[in-house]
Amino acid sequence: MVPLILTGSLAVGGIGVAVLMLPGGAEQLAMLSRDGRYESAAALGNRIHGDGEGDPEVLAQLFDLNGYTGDPARAREAIDEYLRQRPDDVAMLRHAVAFFAQQQDFAAYLEQLERLVAADGRPAEAAALAALYRTHGRFDDEKRVLVAHRRSPLPPEAAERLGRLLARDGDYAEAAETLAPVSLANGTVRPLLFEVLMKDGQHARAAEMATGWSARGIEPASHAVMVLMLAQAGEQDAAERLAATFPRNRSYDPAQLAWALTDQRRFDLVKIVVRHWLAGADRATSARAAGIFVDTAAQAGALGEMIGELQAMLTEPGTPAAKAAMAVVAVSYARWGYQAIAPLRHLLSSELLMQQPLFGASLAMREGNRLAARYFLIETDLSDADEDAADEWYSLAETVFGPLEIAADLTARLHQERLSVAVYPFVQKSALAAGMADPIFALLRAEPEAPANGAGL
Amino acid sequence: VLLIVFLGAAATPSRAAPIDRTVLALYDSLHEETPAHSMLHLNAEMPLNHLGYIVRYHDVRQGLPPLSELEGVVAIATMLTYGFEDPLGYFRWLERAAERVPRVVVLGEFGGALTPPARRSLNKVLARIGLVLTDDYVTSTVTSKVVGMDRTLVGFEADVDPVPFEHPVLQRSGTSARVALEYETNLVGGPVRSIVAATGPGGGYVASGFYLHYSEAIDSKRWIIDPFEFFRRALGIERFPVPDTTTVSGRRLYFSHVDGDGWNNLTLVERYRDPPTYSSEVMLRELIEPYPDLPVSVGFVLSDGDETLGGGEKARDVARRIFALPQVEVASHTHTHPFTWGFFEHYQRAAELRLIERQQPAEARTVAARLRDFVGLGPGEKERERRRFLAGGNDLPRAYLRDAFDVDLEVGTALRGAEELAPPDKKIALYLWSGDTRPFEAAIDATRAAGVRNMNGGDTRFDAQFPSVGYVAPLSRVAGNARQIYSVNTNENNYTGLWTERFYGQRDVIETFRRTGEPMRLRGMNVYYHTYSAERLASVNALREVLDWVRRQPVIPIRASSYAAIADGFFSSRIEAVGALEWTIGDRDGLATVRFDDAEALEADVAASDGVIGSSRHNGSLYVALDQAVATARVKLRARGQPAAGDMTQASLAGSRWQVGAVRRSSCSLGFTASGYGAGEFAWEALPATAMLVTARRGGDALAEQRLVADAQGHATFRLDIDGIEPVEIEMACMGPSQ
After folding, report:
1. What residues contact A330, with CB distance under 8 A and at least 6 apart?
2. Cα–Cα distances in angstroms (integers) from residue A200 to residues A150, A167, A180, A228, B120, in the given order
3. What b/e sequence results for A206-239 when a residue is b if at least 16 CB atoms lie within 10 Å of its CB, and e otherwise?
4. If you average pLDDT over residues A36-53, what whole number do you get?
């Protein structure tokens, strides 16, 4: 009897184990899929699902299988049911978003993306949701999503967008906090950040940031707006500091800043820009800066103010200010003649005129002082003369020197490499007038060690 | 009615006046490599095509166009996101050009820094639009608010953003500008008004960021302005017959074509796995044979039938059986399947061989591989040599690399090779571009020289994922002086993540069909797929779903080459106004229809026209079907609702599933030729209220006969359940008063 019971028990146990070891729905689907029999797997899965199987593992497989074999309606049923059971399954929500994005059902896609972002969406997913709202004109929803994720932190483009939306709605403090981190890497948002700081009353912070940006270089137009906003807000000192802060390199053109300030009739700030620009500038830069100063003064109707400024600067010969002023005086004389500098004439000592010897020569001729004119012409450095300067120098020289003197002087300078190319035509012209051989041609034929001690004037 | 007659009379040209349709588009190849890469091509050319215009591109890097070449140009258009190298030179040229060309259209940047001299030149151009460019610029838009918005132009697909872009300040000059969007902004100097979108007598302008919204985060674009309405206004379009590429014999056209890629791939569809079956065979059985009423043009890759490289006789046999089906048009999908056509424009075999070497799998040189070869389990030298010249993907410039590339082989030989697989009476008519579908000029020329049409590229999609008409491609692409016709819709590759996922994706093409059909009929329907779609059950089912859907639509199925001929005809057609509401249309090539928009109050005057078969209406537009038997058609419109003639002399085709031509009308009979796929369905209007006998014959043999009575409005429809692939002569004759 015992063996019979034992055998029976073993048989029942064996059957039980066998039943337990029968693969479940999920296992069967996995096995068929492993064999590449996806269609069979999908058919089986759909059948057992129809029979009431609601195991999430099976549903997950059914979602994949029906998608793979081309039955998106069943795939949708499967994932909907799965998410009803496990609404916070972020990984599956992500699958659902990808799935619904391509089902021509925008509302469902949006709903799934909202659920994902609300559950545990990545910042990029929140940004995508916001972008989707923006594209479809739902700007309030866009802002809501961005605001909800502003501490995530949002990707820079999304943060910038939020900053702009907040600024647009007058929430300047929040806008500034949102834009400040973005501005570290993205220069284009700096003008906006400055503006919202100003509107929020954070003038000192705005000025400090702007001064830092402008030292490294910002768009002159934006620079001007910042200077003007500070000035309009009564922050004159900060405005002047900012106006005098810009890099000295080719990437930044202070003339644009000066003109932008002139357009707003702020010659007081233009003066600061030009003074800073002139300080320590080389001769070509000085000439350009002086020209801008004169032109902006004329445009602003501030020539009297300019003269007053120059008078102050010229009172201390030998200083950089006086040197800068002389560049402006020379340009004024070239633009409008003697009348323009008459009020300053008494301040223009020989020492100062030596800062601008060509101007000195011209002025001396105007006043009939040929000797002084000769002196200033001899002292004029032609090594970087442009075409206008070369032409002016030669015209003046023709009135105070003989042809031989001019030719000898220019030939000597040529051999000493003290002439710019712009003067070369006049070297040839003077030699021709003096009946000499063409020194340029001679130089080209000569050995490199051509005489450097030719006679000077 | 009186107003229309009056307007028509007022507009009566004293003699034939050609309708100019050329828009000159300027771009810089430094920033936009070719015309096909340009913003204008990708966004604006389609609306311009829809309105009947042909875009001619000019690369300013080759110099500005001589003014003498502006003859016949109706507008100069730019859509720049950058500045030209010599902006001032360009602005001065534009100033002079604007004296010869009626319109200038600027979308986006003007083309360079807006310096005072630039503004002086531009303002002479802008004054014609009624605008003036000031020296101000809205650098901050925090305080900007909309002070004027024309909702008929703005907010088309995307609303105006509450945070506008920075923009130059344009203001009104006079009163001629029709302002669509205007802002007021508190700038440092005070409030300033600025116009960012406007049209006027001399063209149109929309500032950067205000015509199209593009989101990088979701890689999606949508028009802010209505491009159709914008160009309609900016070009000051007067009514003319627009060459139409969507409609034939009054119905929306349908065609299908197949690129032969994957011909020899073994299908994964379970019921075809034992024995292993080529995808081409599955395509034949599942997608072509069951649809004799839907034509399909099948492009065979000649090397797929190569004995050593491809599937050999087995592949050719499938091709023969496919080409033998009456609904199949024979096409070529190249010889060696180039992936990157540009590589072959200045082809160097040595460079290609170097690429082949670089792509050889490292596996061939491993010890294990050598051992396998040693014991005879490796692929062997012959097989290895064969594989060497087969590209696994598009990382090599073409799929079959054994022989040096040659345009004549790639086009001429491929065409002849495919044709040889077809029944003797079937001529090849179409060449389908492969790979990147950017053929160079000589390749396109070779197809033209071979006397076949060419097509592919464009990749139109317009659905929830591509939610803009901006994704609807223009009709064609130019390479040098050659023109490539784009296919009408994209294929399954772009619905399946480049054939990596979601293999049922092509079912979504139905959404594109819907959106390109309503409210404007922008495109016909094109089911375009590759043979590899038959690899998987999901893609087979998707295509069957699409084809079944198409069967239920009131379309006219035509061959793909017929569509290409229609599109070619769009460009070749020469239109002249010859009278009040009367035009001639010549050099039509395959063009079968002209369209008139906003034509609810008009109808075709069939009796006073020549070569007009009939007309149909779709959302306010009138589609006039032209008779291919008449070389130069004359289309005359008249006020709608004129009394019927009471006989058959004004009988007008309202729609047909078959292509109708050679129409002959007399007081008591109407004869025409028709051919097409599936049952013949015909709808005629302006018929007499008498009983009619409809007879269909071919070569004197009567195929069908039926009695027909028009309704009180003169409408009658009938159906012929006969094979119409070969032309059928149809006669409708009066039988006497209806009972």
Report:
1. A287, A290, A356, A358, A359
2. 19, 10, 14, 17, 40
3. bbebbeebbeeebbbebbbbbbbbbbebebeebb
4. 83
pLDDT exceeds cutoff 90 at A395: yes
Q: Give the integer Cα–Cα distance in Å for A127 and B348.
A: 47
In this model, does residue B471 exceed pLDDT 60? yes
Extract the tokens encoding B364: 């061939």
B268 in contact with chain A, both atoms CB, cutoff 8 A: yes
Which residues of chain A does B216 touch, with a Cβ-Cβ cutoff of 8 Å?
Answer: 157
Burial class (CB in 10 A: 0-12, 13-18, 19+), B590: buried
Residue A245 has pLDDT above 60, yes or no: yes
Do residues B570 and B591 make contact, with C-beta atoms less than 8 angstroms apart?
yes
| Of the partner residues A69, A104, A132, the one whose CB lies closest to the CB of residue B508 | A104
Cα–Cα distance between B495 and B724 in angstroms, integer?
A: 34
* Backbone phi, psi, residue B612, to 5°: -105, 125
The answer to whether A299 faces chain B, any CB pair under 8 Å, is: no
Mean pLDDT of A99-117: 93
Q: Which pair of structure tokens corresponds to residue B2?
A: 């009186």
ipTM: 0.86
3-class DSSP state of B66 = coil
CA distance B161 to B182: 13
Q: What residues of chain B, 477 to 516, have a C-beta less than 8 Å from chain A?
A: 502-505, 507-508, 511
Each as own residue / partner, the long-range contacts of residues A211-218 (CB below 8 Å, 24 or more positions apart, any chain) are A211/A241, A211/A242, A211/A245, A213/A187, A214/A242, A214/A245, A214/A246, A215/A245, A215/A246, A215/A247, A216/A247, A217/A246, A217/A247, A217/A249, A217/A251, A217/A252, A218/A187, A218/A190, A218/A191
Q: Global pTM?
A: 0.86
Any chain B CB within 8 A of the CB of A120? no
Residue of B nearest to A155 (CA): B217
CA end-to-end span of chain B: 35
| Cross-chain residue pair B140–A191, CB shorter than 8 Å | yes
Q: Using the beta-carbon criterion (under 8 Å), do A228 and B188 form an inter-chain contact?
A: yes
Out of A104, A263, A264, whose CB is closest to B463?
Answer: A104
pLDDT digits (tens, 9 = 90+) for A418-449: 999 999 999 999 999 999 888 888 777 765 54
In tens, the pLDDT along B614-640 reads 999 999 999 999 999 999 999 999 999
| CB–CB contact A70 B541 (8 Å) | yes
Query: Looking at beta carbons, which residues of chain B come within 8 Å of A36?
Result: 268
